[in-house]
Specification:
Blueprint: E1 4-13, E2 16-26, E3 31-35, H1 42-49, E4 57-62, E5 65-66, H2 72-78, E6 79-82, H3 94-99, H4 114-127, H5 142-156, E7 160-164, H6 172-189, E8 192-196, H7 200-206, E9 209-214, E10 217-223, H8 227-230, H9 232-237, E11 243-245, E12 252-254
Parallel strand pairs: 3-8, 3-9, 6-7, 7-8
Antiparallel strand pairs: 1-2, 1-4, 4-5, 9-10, 11-12
Helix pairs in contact: 4-5
């Protein structure tokens, strides 16, 4: 049984249709990259999967539950969402922020248990953020904040992790740290990872399958290593790409366009 299934899902914001009757299935333990041009509907899709935005038609099933039939709190037991980074930070320390990931396991009038504190500790150890525990979120670097946000999702204990451009605006060192962490979460914990990214080479090298959206429709949903040969990238981005075989992975990846650097 698939862990996540969308059937003819559409979504409109105001009079503008963002998603146009899309259907797909994702199996437990997959690593999926969600790619496509700006305005394709990638972030909207993640928000529909998390009930942040309502779907106009169609249905979404997570772990066999129809999304409309469960509460937001119950959904949080199955899926965790890491949104795009922005400049707004709640007045929490890193440890307090990670603890907020335990909210689906808490009732309104109970305090955090040893189980909750253990989950937070393990999440911070896995993400290498335990040394940041007492620091305020607003005082952390972009890379540190991103790791803390992922730690909060780990503490949540969900089987699915949805991430919206988790490596955006990070320096190469922090970007590599985040991507290695996501791979470890996927391989070692068996967590299903669905990641929006504009880095097509990262999608090819990191994910098992890629889902390509364009103007609210699915143009490709297959092995990431087949992106280069499929012609879908040229079609949705409206430009030519040059490829080279990666010397270690063996996959075809995109070469930088030298014309962009021509004086």
């Amino acid at each position: 049984m698939s862990i996540l299934e969308a059937r003819s899902v559409s979504c409109s914001i105001g009079r503008k249709q963002i998603l146009d009757s899309i259907s797909f299935e994702i199996q437990k333990g997959e690593f999926i990259s969600l790619i496509g041009p700006n305005g394709a509907g990638k972030t909207t899709l993640l928000k529909c999967l998390m009930k942040i935005l309502p779907t106009g038609s169609g249905s979404i099933h997570i772990n066999g539950y129809e999304l409309r039939s469960i509460t937001q709190k119950k959904l949080a037991l199955y899926a965790a969402y890491v949104p795009q980074a922005d400049s707004r930070y709640l007045p929490f320390t890193a440890e307090e922020f990670v603890m907020t990931g335990r909210y689906p396991h808490l009732s309104p009038f109970t305090s955090c248990s040893d189980t909750d504190r253990s989950a937070v500790r393990k999440a911070m150890e896995m993400t290498g953020t335990e040394n940041l525990a007492s620091r305020r979120m607003a005082c952390l670097s972009g890379g540190e904040r991103q790791l803390v946000m992922i730690a909060s999702s780990l503490a949540q204990g969900a089987e699915i992790m949805l991430l919206d451009e988790p490596a955006a605006f990070l320096d190469p060192g922090h970007e590599s740290s985040v991507m290695r962490l996501l791979r470890d979460i996927n391989v070692k914990k068996g967590t299903t990872v669905i990641m929006v990214t504009h880095d097509i080479n990262r999608a090819i090298l990191s994910s098992g399958r890629s889902l390509v959206l364009d103007r609210g429709r699915i143009e490709y949903f297959a092995e990431s290593t087949g992106l280069a040969a499929s012609g879908v990238l040229e079609r949705v981005y409206g430009r030519r790409f040059d490829y080279i075989q990666h010397p270690f992975a063996g996959s075809d990846i995109i070469l930088p366009d030298v014309k962009e650097y021509d004086g």
